[in-house]
Amino acid sequence: MAKGFDSIMHGIIFVVLNNKQKIKMEKKLLKKQRLFLSLVETMSLYKDSENKKDKIFYARTFVSATDLMISLHEQGVKEETHPVFKLAMDQYRYWAKPINELI
Hints:
This protein is mainly α. Helix content is about 80%, strand content about 0%. It starts with a helix and ends in an 8-residue tail after the last helix.
């Protein structure tokens, strides 16, 4: 009987630890989604500036936002299941300039 109990406890502990890892991963992904949203909002402030420094800052922010978006996609984040990411993507599509206009 002790062996069966130990086996059940081991299974429960594994499930609890696995759930904690999933929660930790979801928190990290949410933090990255919020960062992506913040970068996109920053892009909106500099998109139409004629100042050369602002254009460079916009381009760097655009590249960082794009890299983060790709990373989030690779980690399984989708617009259909992640509302913060969907909001950021909607804004990204609005504020992103074609690459030839960045320089």
